[in-house]
Design goal:
The protein has 69 residues and is mostly helical. It has three helices and no strands.
C-alpha cells in the first residue's frame, strides 16, 4: 500500500467520494463529523451506527466497511 502524503492525497481513488461526502455534510450542517462522512460514503450503515451508540457493538471499527489503515 502506498503511503498517503500531502503531495499525493488528491490522486487517491477515494478522494472524490470523500470531497462529495464532506460537501454534503457542510450543506446540511456547519461542521464535519467523520461518522457523517462514513455514512454518506456507504462505509457505515445507519443501523450499525445505532447499535454502536446503544452499546450493541463494542467498537465502531468492527462495523465500518473499509480498511482503516
Amino acid at each position: 500500500m502506498r503511503k498517503i502524503t500531502i503531495e499525493n492525497y488528491r490522486i487517491q481513488k477515494e478522494y472524490p467520494r470523500i470531497v462529495a461526502a464532506v460537501a454534503q455534510a457542510l450543506a446540511r450542517q456547519r461542521f464535519i463529523a467523520p461518522i457523517d462522512v462514513f455514512l454518506s460514503m456507504g462505509l457505515l450503515d445507519a443501523d450499525d451506527l445505532t447499535k454502536w451508540k446503544r452499546g450493541g457493538t463494542p467498537y465502531l471499527e468492527r462495523v465500518i466497511r473499509c480498511n482503516l489503515a
